[in-house]
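Final report, closing paragraph on structural work. Over the funding period we assembled a curated collection of sequence-structure pairs, and we close with a single example.
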Amino acid sequence: MAIPVILVFGATGKIGGALVEELLPAHAAGRVKLVAAVRRPEAAPAFEARGLEARLIDLDLAETRGLEPIVGAMRGVDRVFLLTGYDVRMIAQSKAAIDAARAVGASQIVHVGAHASPDTTIVHFAWHQVVEAYIDRSGVDATHLRPTSFMQNLPLLLQVGGAQPGVLPHYLGDARTSWVDTGDVARVAAVALREPKAHAGRAYGLGTEAASMPEIAALLAEITGLPWRDEAREPAGFLRTMTALGADPVYMACVRNVFERTRSGSLKDAADTFDTVQRLTGRAPTTLRDYIERHRAAFS
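Its predicted structure, as stored:
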């Protein structure tokens, strides 16, 4: 039997990088062949040094060069992990990857989207749902992963918030929201990629713990022994800051709207949690306490 070839989009990111780590033992044992998709040639040597193949695939070039170069780069791929950029280009990027996967005869796509109600009116959540629908009509077996807020965003709030030491800036008021560690998303993805038939046609919510920002600030104080406090700010300020840093204004406007609706209580699914990680991996998910303790230096 041929060894299945797994292509990982987003291999240089947090989720994709963690997924590579999860699948490396199976790759080393010859149970799968792991391939990293990279957008820049200089990213390839780091994967090749670990015994992985790296293929140069820039999904943004499909518009000007057509689909064939992507199809050529994906020849021989059986299973695809699909995570694209967090801006409006995700729709075209995902479509190109899905069309190429179908063209090369891939048997599975594991896609990272976002948790939202089926009738969501949040624009970037709807983008993910449009991508999911396109995958489902492609004829390729699919598993959809739907994470909530990433715990890894907490240090980013400190970096972009410009707050004083010991202050956790945020835009959610006292509302609780759901959190998940990117490593747990990767572990669930690895399970689906190792056992594609068992997870075909499934969609998995991936939020493991609900907490408000005041609760997280209190947890930071307890763990670090420092006098942490939260500082609620206006979501409009987040949009100004992020667009000034070069982030996609359309996507960031959506994030601002999520903040506004979460703190007002009108986004009913913002604090949803699931037992997916424990149920599929057999391991307890990372808690906020675990995450902060593991990354204590980032909060000290």
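Residues 113 and 146 are 5 Å apart (CA to CA). The domain at 5-148+181-206+272-284 is CATH 3.40.50.720 (Rossmann fold). We thank the funder for supporting this effort.
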